[in-house]
Inverse folding.
């Protein structure tokens, strides 16, 4: 995050403007989001110990190269499995974009208890118990 802030400061802008955070939760493809926002997200995701980012060469049916990001963390997989379903429903107009965005906001709140430390997803709700004095000295 410090690097992203430094980039924004060097460019004379804010992190919100640089990343276009107002539009990051939208499922509407017509909205404009700065390309830098995607680059920053890919860079951060590539830092995860459970991720693999690479450039893949195409093959006969797809002769172009592409960026491949794989993340094996169960929390990421669970979120994106659900998000893909909501995204597809919105694209098919089964639900409105507003309904999809409300789902995204709710899902993001659910995952607020998680942080990334040293490239690993950590559940912060369990850290409260680690700070209790005498927890290591239980009588049983």
């Amino acid at each position: 995050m410090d690097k992203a802030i430094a980039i924004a400061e060097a460019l004379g802008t804010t992190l919100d403007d640089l990343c276009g955070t107002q539009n990051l939760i939208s499922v509407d493809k017509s909205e404009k989001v700065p390309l830098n926002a995607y680059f920053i997200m890919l860079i951060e995701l590539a830092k995860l110990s459970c991720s693999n980012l690479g450039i893949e060469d195409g093959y006969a049916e797809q002769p172009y190269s592409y960026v491949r990001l794989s993340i094996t963390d169960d929390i990421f997989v669970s979120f994106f499995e659900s998000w893909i379903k909501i995204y597809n429903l919105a694209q098919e107009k089964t639900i409105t974009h507003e309904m999809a965005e409300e789902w995204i906001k709710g899902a993001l709140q659910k995952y607020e208890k998680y942080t990334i430390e040293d490239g690993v997803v950590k559940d912060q709700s369990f850290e409260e118990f680690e700070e209790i004095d005498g927890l290591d000295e239980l009588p049983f």
